[in-house]
Design goal:
Chain lengths: 300, 282
C-alpha cells in the first residue's frame, strides 16, 4: 500500500522531482569540492593554524597582520600590473586575427599553428622563457651582446621581473584571444560590411563602427578569460621566479601558496586570509560577468 | 569579409602578404623551435654555449630515451593519463545530467544554480586549497591519483555544466515536448532524445577538459608529494631540478609533456575551438 501511494505521488510530481535527480550528482561533487571549501577558507582565516595541530581563534588577527604586511602590498600591486598589462592580449589577439583572416591556400594551417602556444602547459612556457631570459646563454644575451650591450638579468632584477613574466604569459593568452576573434570574424554579417562599404566606410572606421560592435560576444569572452587568467596567474611565477627576487614578483595567488604551503611555513590561517582577499577581488569581476550574462540570457 | 580579401588587392600586396605570414609564424613560434632544437643537441653543445647555432650532432631520439632512463618521466606520464581520462569521463557525465536539468526544466532554482556553477568555475584556486588539501589528507586521498581525479572532476563540472546547459537550451524544445506527450519517461528522454544530440558538445568538452587537466600544475603541486601520483607537469618541474643545466634533457621532457594536448588539438581542432568559444560564438 505504502509503495503504491508514494509511486502515485512520484508520478504526479515527476516534472518537479526529475531536475533534482539529474542535478544531484553534480551538486554533490560541486558542493564538497568547491562551494563548501570557500566557506571553510573564510572560517579558517580567523584562526592561527599550522595545518596539523590545534586551531586557535584569533578573530581579525590575520587580516590585521595582512594589512600591515609589505609583502601583501607588493603582491597586490603586481596583481594590478598583471591585470592591466594582461589586457593587452585582447587588442593583440584582435590584431593577429585580422592579420590572419584571409581565405588564401594554407591559411587553416597557419591559424592553428598560431594557436599552438595556448595548448602547451604554462609550466613549459615558463621554462622556455626562463631559459630565454638567462643573461648568460639565453636569447636575451645573444641579442644584447649583438648590439654590444651587457644583457640585463630580467628575472633577477626587481624592476623587470614582473614584466618579464607577464610578457611570457601574454604569449599563450594572445593566442587564445586570437582564436576567439577568428571565430567571431567568421560570423560577421557580410551584408553589413557591404552596406558599410557603400557608405564609404573603410579600414579603421569600418572596424570601429561596423565590425567591432558585431564582435562584442568575442570581446566579452576575451575580457572574461583574460581577467580571470591574470588574477589566477600562478604556474608561471612558480616556475620562473617563485615570487623572487625578494618577493618582488609575488602576486596574491603565489603569496598565499608560499605562506600556507611551502618551506616558508605552514600558516594555513594566514594563507586563508590572503585567499579570501583574492576571492573578494575576483568576485567583483565575477559578479559583473554574471550580471552581463544574466542580461543576455533574459533577452535571448 | 573583413579585412578586404587579399585576392582583391594588388599583386604586390598579395606577394607581400604571402611572405609576411610565414615570417610572422616563424617569429611567433621561435620559442618552440628553439626548445625543439635544444632537445636534439648533445651535452657538449650545451657546455660550449652553442645554444642557438646549428647543433653539432642530432641526438633527438637519444635525448628522449635518456629522459626516460634517467628519470621517472614514464611514471609521471602514466600518472597524467590516469588522472586525465577518468576526470574527463566523470565531469562530462555529471555535466550532461546537470546541464539537461538546468536547460529543460522550468523551476525557480534553475538560474541561480546555473550561476553558482558558472561562478564556481571562476573562483581562485587558492580559496579552495587549504580545505581541499585537508579533506584529501583526512580521507586518505592525499598523494593519490584518485584524490586528484575527484577534485578535478568536481571543479571542471562547473565549466562543463555551463557549456552543456547552453548547448541543450539551443536544441529544439519541441522534440522533448512531443516525447513527453507520447508518455516517454524523463530519463528515457534524456538518454534517447537528448544524449545523441549533444554528441558534438561531449566531444568539445572532452578535448578541452583533457587539455585543462593535463596542463594543471597547481593542484598537482598541492595534492601530491612523491612520485607515486605526480603528473607530468609537476614532474617536469622536478626534472628541471634534477637535470640542472642539462637543458637538452629538460627541453626534451618539456616537449614530451606538451605532446598529448597538442595531438588532441590537431585531431579535434573544430571541437576544441567550439569548446573554447563556449559554443556562443560559432
Amino acid at each position: 500500500m505504502q509503495t503504491k501511494h508514494s509511486n502515485g505521488w512520484l508520478r504526479a510530481n515527476r516534472q518537479k522531482i526529475a531536475p533534482w535527480v539529474f542535478l544531484a550528482p553534480a551538486m554533490l561533487f560541486f558542493t564538497v569540492y568547491v562551494i563548501a571549501p570557500i566557506f571553510q577558507s573564510m572560517w579558517y582565516s580567523f584562526y592561527a593554524w599550522d595545518g596539523i595541530g590545534e586551531k586557535e581563534w584569533i578573530g581579525w588577527g590575520n587580516y590585521i597582520e595582512l594589512f600591515d604586511d609589505d609583502r601583501f602590498y607588493v603582491s597586490l600591486k603586481n596583481n594590478v600590473i598583471w591585470l592591466l598589462l594582461y589586457m593587452l592580449a585582447v587588442p593583440a589577439g584582435l590584431f593577429v586575427a585580422l592579420f590572419l583572416n584571409q581565405n588564401v591556400w594554407g591559411m587553416r594551417f597557419y591559424k592553428s599553428m598560431f594557436f599552438f602556444p595556448f595548448v602547451i602547459s604554462q609550466v613549459v612556457v615558463g621554462l622556455i622563457f626562463t631559459w630565454f631570459y638567462n643573461p648568460n646563454f639565453g636569447i636575451v644575451a645573444v641579442v644584447w651582446e649583438f648590439f654590444g650591450a651587457t644583457p640585463p638579468s630580467i628575472l633577477g632584477d626587481e624592476r623587470f621581473v614582473t614584466y618579464g613574466i607577464i610578457f611570457a604569459g601574454l604569449w599563450p593568452q594572445v593566442a587564445y584571444c586570437m582564436i576567439l576573434y577568428l571565430t567571431g570574424l567568421n560570423n560577421v554579417s557580410t551584408d553589413q560590411i557591404e552596406a558599410g562599404r557603400l557608405d564609404g566606410a573603410r579600414g579603421w572606421r569600418m572596424l570601429r563602427y561596423v565590425i567591432l560592435p558585431q564582435l562584442w560576444p568575442a570581446t566579452f569572452l576575451a575580457i572574461v578569460v583574460t581577467v580571470i587568467g591574470a588574477l589566477r596567474s600562478f604556474d608561471m611565477i612558480a616556475i620562473m621566479t617563485q615570487g623572487g627576487p625578494y618577493g618582488s614578483s609575488n602576486v596574491l595567488s603565489y603569496f598565499m601558496f608560499e605562506q600556507a604551503l611551502s618551506e616558508y611555513g605552514f600558516r594555513m590561517g594566514y594563507g586563508s586570509s590572503i585567499s579570501v582577499i583574492l576571492f573578494l577581488i575576483m568576485m567583483v569581476f565575477i559578479c559583473y560577468f554574471l550580471w552581463v550574462m544574466y542580461q543576455e540570457d533574459r533577452r535571448g | 569579409m573583413f579585412p578586404t580579401p587579399i585576392e582583391k588587392r594588388s599583386q604586390s600586396r598579395r606577394i607581400a602578404y604571402r611572405i609576411c605570414v610565414p615570417v610572422a609564424l616563424f617569429v611567433w613560434l621561435l620559442p618552440l623551435l628553439a626548445i625543439f632544437m635544444t632537445s636534439t643537441r648533445s651535452a657538449a653543445d650545451i657546455n660550449t654555449g652553442n645554444m642557438f647555432g646549428w647543433p653539432e650532432e642530432f641526438l633527438l631520439i637519444e635525448n628522449y630515451i635518456a629522459v626516460f632512463q634517467q628519470s621517472k618521466a614514464a611514471t609521471y606520464f602514466l600518472n597524467s593519463i590516469k588522472i586525465t581520462v577518468p576526470t574527463v569521463i566523470i565531469s562530462v557525465a555529471l555535466a550532461c545530467l546537470a546541464g539537461y536539468a538546468l536547460a529543460i526544466y522550468r523551476f525557480r532554482a534553475a538560474l541561480p544554480l546555473f550561476f553558482i556553477f558558472v561562478a564556481g568555475n571562476f573562483v581562485p584556486f587558492q580559496i579552495l586549497m587549504v580545505p581541499v588539501r585537508d579533506l584529501s589528507v583526512q580521507t586518505g586521498l592525499y598523494d593519490t591519483v584518485a584524490g586528484l581525479v575527484l577534485f578535478h572532476a568536481a571543479f571542471q563540472t562547473g565549466f562543463c555544466t555551463l557549456f552543456m546547459r547552453n548547448f541543450i537550451k539551443a536544441l529544439p524544445f519541441d522534440l522533448i515536448e512531443s516525447a513527453r506527450i507520447e508518455g516517454v519517461g524523463e530519463f528515457k528522454i534524456f538518454w534517447y532524445v537528448v544524449l545523441p544530440l549533444v554528441r558534438p558538445a561531449i566531444a568539445a568538452l572532452s578535448v578541452l577538459i583533457f587539455t585543462f587537466v593535463w596542463n594543471d600544475f597547481f593542484w598537482a603541486t598541492v595534492l601530491t608529494q612523491g612520485e607515486v601520483s605526480k603528473p607530468i607537469t609537476a614532474g617536469v618541474r622536478a626534472l628541471n631540478g634534477q637535470f640542472v643545466s642539462q637543458w637538452h634533457l629538460v627541453s626534451a621532457a618539456s616537449l614530451m609533456a606538451a605532446i598529448p594536448p597538442v595531438v588532441m588539438f590537431f585531431l579535434m581542432q573544430r571541437h576544441f575551438i567550439a569548446g573554447l568559444t563556449l559554443g556562443a560564438v560559432k
